[in-house]
Amino acid sequence: MKGLKFIIAGILFGIVMSKSEAISWFRIQEMFRFQSFHMYGIIGTAVILGVIITYLIKKYKLRDYQGNPIVFTPKEKSIPRYLIGGTIFGLGWALTGACPGPMFVNIGYGYWAILLAVGGAIAGTYTYGVIKDRLPH
Amino acid sequence: MLELLRQPWPWYTSGAVIAFVMVLLLFFGKSFGVSANLRTICSACGAGKTVKFFDFDWRSQTWNLLFLVGAIIGGVISSQFLSTGEAVQISQATIKDLSQLGISAPNGIQPEELFSLEALFTVKGFLILLLGGFAIGFGARYAGGCTSGHAISGLSNLQWPSLVAVIGFFIGGLITTWVLMPLIF
User: Fold this and answer.
1) B117 to chain A: which residues are within 8 Å by CB?
2) What global pTM score does this model have?
């Protein structure tokens, strides 16, 4: 089954988000109150390793498992969309204590209430799609 | 070994595993970004018929939906087999700050005041999760990504737009934490 490897990668992601406690509302509050290094340590380690690995992939022109070159799509250059969009995202992140990945992990963990936030997130995405052309980008 | 895995993992192990997940997806020919799934879900539900933004071949994103299914399974495995049931060990300073807002010290992973079904059926509890989720979905698509797409994938590729987005994530998070929460709770 071709899709199995993505499910396995997702399981690994779900376990690490749970065991690092990054799915916890309390941990996100602690982060935004600058009262612990924990979340900064997690994101910092992931980014430093990510930078090194991304550099090596580009330098040695590594290929994926099917032999295709691994390509990195540069992000579109702009300030308003990232700053405004990012700020709106952050407002919700601190309130629910979960960004999109941890939302889904929380469902599996048994915190059913988060389904409401998932519903909200889908509605938010849909609303963005509807009014997209009227927003500064 | 299982005993060790059942303990909360230190930040350096967690960060390394997250980087590994990102690399795994790169070698599968994909890129790590969770919030794109929300757009895919809208499209799969038929939103593409009326809204152009959702008019794309969502089936090409099936791999990412499978990743999401895996993430849910990972949550089940963690709570059923890899948990000691211990409360999150957050700092005393945070416990003290939160108690002033009426949120009691951790008893599990999430606060009862927000994630219990009783809380869900109060107007305040309902609106917090619904509007919080709405801001996440709207903001993630507006900014073109969330924590995984920008803070992990984007920063790893040294993309300055991702840094701007991450700064935005923090501006919003700090406003909620320091300005809105004392008003809401």
Assistant:
1) 112-113
2) 0.96
